[in-house]
Design brief:
Strand content of chain A: under 5%
Largest interface: A-B, 50 and 50 residues
Mean pLDDT of chain A: 85
Number of strands of chain A: 0
CATH architecture of the largest domain in chain A: Orthogonal Bundle
Order of helices and strands of chain A: HHHHHHHHHH
Number of helices of chain A: 10
Oligomer: homodimer
Largest sheet of chain A: none
């Protein structure tokens, strides 16, 4: 097992075990490919270990739960980072961001990975904590920017930002978890305008 | 195996196999209890069959997928039906409905059951179709009423109802799937007012 101890920063250290970069990359690549080929139903640490030529104890030492591994696969995939757009209006920011996010989910194993992560979190407390306390806060930073900028412009009440972010995340989760993330500009625009309070949205 | 063929309506017939009511009740009760005790991680058809004293072939004939069984457990639990409230304002309807829904999820095995169903739908197409095409449309009827009544009163644009329903569902899914459904009237009210466009919601 090629595990040369080395210093590689606070994030790694927080996981409680130092990693060999080549072995780590091989394991992440094997996990990504396995998800892409077989989805969550066919995803197992056994098979990841076999494909990566790594030992299961190594994988479990670096990623204590399957969820921790899935989070790192997702983050690595997000090299094509989706930045918060700045179109000047909240509704069109939301439209652009949503289309980019869904394209990312569709076009890479990331959609499957995220679905697997959410499913995993329903089966165990450790995975749930990883999703809620590690994955979500990290992923929401960019997204939240759109709403904070809109509040700064006076387009929405700053007090509504938390609720708007949560409503928006929810919309995306339901679409992903029911596999309805085909590109649909009119449908997405209707949601975006409703959420942003831009006409046509509500009478008052 | 106590399977006396009998007529019991279109819904049963649609599943493709007639059921013995006593055996069906025993299986649903066993499934509900197993979910309550062990959650999704400990849920298996093997264990349901053992507890109900039923054969696995019988269970699979009546509920082709685990998802179909979970849907019937959830529906049976919803005897304490949550009707759409009529407070006269959309935001307070949403507040009341959300508090009742979360209490239902917390106080019965239903929250766990629904989480298990969503997780199951990430692992297979049949379960996904059961969730999206059977469970969701059925469960959304009541909830949708709140928004349609608000549109009829002129409080919201009728064209926004679809998006509002989906945003609202999403909010609840995210909270359930990250296990944050403790009663929280101020937090829920903030979401409800934001969604309904009632102050404090947005500046414009």
């Amino acid at each position: 097992m090629p595990e040369t101890p080395q210093q590689d920063g606070a994030r790694r250290a927080s996981i409680g075990a130092r990693r060999n970069p080549a072995a780590e990359a091989a394991i992440l690549a094997a996990a990504r490919d396995l998800l892409a080929e077989r989805g969550y139903a066919g995803f197992s640490i056994d098979e990841v270990a076999r494909r990566a030529g790594a030992g299961k104890p190594t994988i479990y030492r670096w990623w204590p739960t399957k969820a921790d591994l899935l989070i790192d696969v997702y983050s690595a995939e997000k090299a094509a980072i989706i930045a918060a757009p700045e179109t000047g209006a909240l509704w069109s920011d939301i439209l652009d961001y949503t289309r980019a996010l869904w394209a990312f989910w569709r076009g890479t194993p990331s959609g499957r990975t995220f679905r697997a992560l959410i499913a995993e979190a329903q089966a165990g407390e450790a995975a749930l904590r990883a999703l809620r306390d590690k994955f979500l806060p990290e992923r929401l930073k960019d997204l939240r920017l759109m709403f904070e900028r809109a509040a700064a412009r006076g387009d929405i009440d700053a007090a509504a930002v938390d609720a708007l972010v949560e409503l928006y995340i929810g919309f995306n989760w339901v679409r992903l978890l029911t596999d309805r993330i085909a590109d649909d500009p009119p449908g997405i625009e209707a949601m975006a305008r409703t959420l942003a309070g831009a006409p046509p949205g509500k009478a008052q």
